[in-house]
Amino acid sequence: MSSDASPTREKILDAGLALLQAQDGRGVRMADIARAAGVSRQAVYLHFDSRAGLLTAVARHLDTRLGADARLAASRAAPTGRDRIAAYVAAWAGYMPEIRPVAMALMAMGETDPEARAAWGDRMDAMRQGCHAAIRDLHRDGDLRPEWTVETATDLFFVMLSIRSWVALTEGCGWTQQDYVARITAQALASFAR
Asked: How many Å apart are CA 103 and CA 126, to the nearest integer?
């Protein structure tokens, strides 16, 4: 496997990202990505040993391009669990409009494509870790309602923040981003905090 900083690798990731965004995930094969990147299929396989690995790397590449770590800084630095929940909802809500095309493509592909499902699962595992960290901090503060464990509260918080829920609320029900952040934060705190 080739270096992570290789210009060819970057071209492949950029091409994969562009195809996912443009085609809603339809027809995104290794050969399609190679063609779009202007490289051979062999070059793609030199950098990525599987399509699942390539799709996962493309999703992570999007996170890097959009500055996911910097967006989460306020949540990670929050002094209380309540503050961390609020900051995490705000960060994730601001991120969803930008990742929506790739997320929807990977979810649609994932219904019949285990490699796309694995790529989206990788990113959702990372998002779930953020939910877990916020709930864990609420528990650390002695502020988690007694009917919840850290795991069960994380389960619900994760589902509350799913991109499908966000799409349904913002596009289907007409909530603004500001409405979404305020209402989901209030609901999360009402559900989980003492």
From this structure: 14
Distances (CA, A) of 29 to 7, 32, 116: 20, 5, 11
Rounded to an integer, what is the distance from CA 138 to the centroid of its chain?
A: 22
Amino acid identity at 85: I
The model carries a pTM of 0.85
pLDDT of residue 21: 81
What domains appear along the chain, each with residue ranges and CATH number? 7-65 (1.10.10.60), 68-192 (1.10.357)
Nearest to 11 by CA among 54, 69, 66: 54
Report the alpha-carbon distance of residue 130 to residue 71 in Å, rounded.
12
> What average pLDDT does the segment 88-103 reach?
91
Average pLDDT, the chain: 91
Helical residues (DSSP H) of the chain, grouped into ranges = 7-23, 30-37, 41-47, 51-65, 68-71, 73-77, 81-110, 114-140, 150-160, 163-167, 177-192
**Residue whose token pair is 């900051």:** 87
Closest CA relative to residue 30, chosen from 70, 47, 75: 47
